[in-house]
Design brief:
Layout: H1 10-29, H2 36-46, H3 51-64, E1 66-68, E2 71-73, H4 91-101, H5 113-119, H6 123-129, H7 136-170, H8 174-197, E3 199-202, H9 209-231, E4 246-250, H10 253-273, E5 290-292, E6 297-298, E7 310-311, E8 314-315, E9 322-323, H11 324-328, E10 348-354, E11 357-362, H12 370-378, H13 383-400
Parallel strand pairs: 3-4, 4-5
Antiparallel strand pairs: 1-2, 3-11, 6-9, 7-8, 10-11
Length: 412
């Protein structure tokens, strides 16, 4: 509906709606002055002709930082507020936005954005795309054994060794004390660096639920590490796991935009709820890790040629769709066009597969090319083929993990 009234494309409409969504969140969590955006919208209800100008001016202030309506605005940008473009809304739509602004968006659960995305599709399109909301429990049935369980096992060993070194330091003096503390600190920092070096790629990310849950689990584990550092007499450090470690591919322009916003909302919520405050400006990092493209084919529908060519990591303009594995034979995996999702081939040890989730783990540079073969083989099935596999996978993991303790029962 918005696209048909001033938005030049679905991309512009999706981008505008997500800017509004983040503003709702920002004013309720304290990134913007309390009630600032609500006042702008309510002014638009009374004078609809003022809405575009006021909202556009707010977007521009959020892009660079500055002043709006006699209030200081921090710098957000991250690509979300790169422009102050506004899609015109009708008076009735502004009233709906005003109703939404009266709700508390500061504690919104990012996982619900998947439901918003699914309901925005008509049933036929939803079935064709395989777009179905996945609950947090089902996501954890995959994320816990594939992503977190290896880290938790390693953390138990590191915690035991670091604790032993801290105990030695407690009964030592002078150089022995310093050496024991140094070894304990090295163990903890080394493990934390592994968490920060992980890269997670979801090649059919939808609205980003898998990525958001993965990020939260990694942050919770990093918090355990820094809390333990404080209990053994070491200087606690701040969490550095961030959304920049998450990568995604999605064909829907709306879901592609929504996934990036949902991940950043979840990350900022976690920092505030756990007492770490808001990160330094710019508050939003670059929103370039989630790409709007096909995970299986490189699409260019402007022309149809009998043969596709890939040169220097970029396909010639006007070429037809190219399978990922064919493009990769020309050295284009992860580098199809400038700024595309990168699989860091010189540093990735493996791509661990589940239907819809790839995990790229850091390793020494001698493993050159290790990610290429894994990347080529990890996601060759179409969505229609992968959906029943995903359902069987989730069902099997749920059965295996039914006796596991709930994540909420673990120590924070």
């Amino acid at each position: 509906m918005v696209c048909g009234r001033g938005a030049s494309s679905r991309h512009e409409a999706a981008h505008f709606l997500n800017k509004l969504l983040f503003c709702l969140f920002a004013e309720d969590i304290g990134l913007l002055q309390k009630g600032l955006f609500t006042r702008v919208v309510e002014r638009g209800v009374k004078r609809p002709e003022s809405f575009n100008g006021n909202v556009g001016a707010l977007f521009e202030a959020m892009r660079d930082g500055g002043e709006f309506s006699l209030e200081d605005i921090p710098r957000f940008n991250g690509g979300l507020y790169e422009t102050g473009d506004v899609v015109p809304l009708t008076p009735d739509e502004i009233k709906l936005l005003a109703d939404a602004a009266r709700l508390d968006w500061g504690s919104v659960e990012p996982a619900i954005f998947g439901t918003l995305f699914e309901r925005s599709l008509d049933p036929n399109q939803r079935a064709r795309l395989g777009a179905h909301y996945t609950s947090r429990e089902d996501i954890l049935a995959v994320v816990e054994p594939v992503l977190m369980a290896p880290f938790r096992r390693e953390w138990e060993r590191v915690q035991e060794d670091a604790g032993a070194e801290a105990e030695k330091a407690r009964v030592s003096r002078g150089g022995r004390l310093r050496n024991a503390l140094r070894r304990a600190e090295s163990l903890l920092l080394g493990f934390a660096e592994k968490l920060r070096g992980l890269r997670v790629l979801d090649p059919a990310c939808g609205s980003g639920n898998f990525l958001y849950v993965s990020l939260k689990e990694l942050l919770d584990l990093e918090k355990e590490v820094l809390t333990f550092a404080g209990t053994v007499g070491l200087t606690p450090f701040f969490p550095e796991v961030s959304p920049e470690q998450l990568y995604g591919i999605e064909t829907s322009p709306y879901a592609h935009e929504l996934a990036q916003v949902a991940v950043w909302i979840g990350y900022l919520q976690w920092r505030v709820e756990n007492g770490f405050g808001i990160r330094e400006e710019p508050i939003l990092g670059p929103m370039t890790n989630i790409k709007e493209m096909d995970a299986l084919m490189l699409r260019d529908e402007r022309r149809h040629c009998p043969r596709a060519r890939v040169a220097r990591g970029r396909r010639d303009p006007g070429q037809p769709a190219v399978p990922w594995r064919e493009a990769d034979s020309h050295g284009a995996w992860g580098r199809v066009r400038r700024g595309s999702v990168r699989a860091p081939r010189s540093r990735a040890r493996a791509a661990v597969r589940r239907p819809g989730l790839l995990l790229l783990r850091e390793s020494p540079r001698r493993d050159r090319g290790g990610a290429d073969e894994a990347g080529r083989t990890a996601w060759r099935r179409t969505r229609s083929e992968a959906e029943p596999i995903a359902r069987c996978w989730i069902a099997s993991r749920r059965a295996e993990t039914s006796s596991w303790p709930s994540p909420t029962s673990r120590g924070s």
